[in-house]
Amino acid sequence: MGSTGLAIFGYALLHFSRLGVDFDFWYFSIGVMLLALGLALCATPATVAITQALPTSKQGVASAVNDTAREVGSAIGIAVLGAALTEAYKNSMEIATKGLDEQIASKLQSSVAFTKMPAPMGIPADKWNQLVASGLEAFRDGTQNALTIAGCVAIAGALLILIIAPSKTAQLEK
Predict the structure, then answer these.
(1) Model pLDDT, residue 48
(2) What is the pLDDT of residues 141-152, one digit of tens each?
(3) How far apart are alpha carbons 41 and 35 in whole angstroms?
(4) More confident site: 72 or 20
(5) Residue 156 confidence (pLDDT) above 70
(6) What is the distance between the alpha carbons of residues 89 and 15, in angstroms, rounded to a whole number?
(7) Which runs of consecutive H residues, i.e. helices, occur in the chain?
């Protein structure tokens, strides 16, 4: 069950990676439902596997190991995926901001938040609109990269669990 849930979770991340710049409510809603289903099917079996690995007297230790594994995994995942998103965004924005004042270009390359600001003095409205569109596309590209990496890692994890995790039948035979 855990590997199935993790595979569905991974697929949901790949599904989200294909979202465009324009919001599609139904596409997004399907992704949320898949994500919820995948998490529901993988989180509980993962917790049970960790806590059942130790005797009742060590359940506090099992709970701590479970929490620590999730926290460390989350921190590493955020760092790796954040770096992938940032690198793709910066690379795209370096191209889009060529020819601009270095200080303005640096600000536009550092955050997508500029897309909600009015055009600064000295940049024509049509050029600013192109920069905003480029910023949104660059952010989408970075997000797609990060979600694709996360989805592939989750699916690889599901396959790994399927291969190496002990089955219920094997545990009952003991």
Answers:
(1) 83
(2) 999 999 999 999
(3) 10
(4) 72
(5) yes
(6) 20
(7) 2-16, 25-52, 59-96, 102-110, 125-164, 168-173
User: In terms of DSSP H, where are the helices of 53-124?
Assistant: 59-96, 102-110
- For 160, half-sphere exposure in the C-beta direction (CA atoms, 13 angstrom radius) is 6
* Lookup result for tokens 């600064």: 120
Among residues of the chain, what percentage have pLDDT more than 70? 95
Are 154 and 9 a contacting pair, CB within 8 Å?
Answer: yes
CB 6 within 8 A of CB 125: no
| Cα–Cα dist 74/66, whole Å | 12
Burial degree of 152 (CB within 10 A; 0-12, 13-18, 19+): middle
Between CA 39 and CA 68 the distance in angstroms is 18
| pLDDT the model gives residue 167 | 66
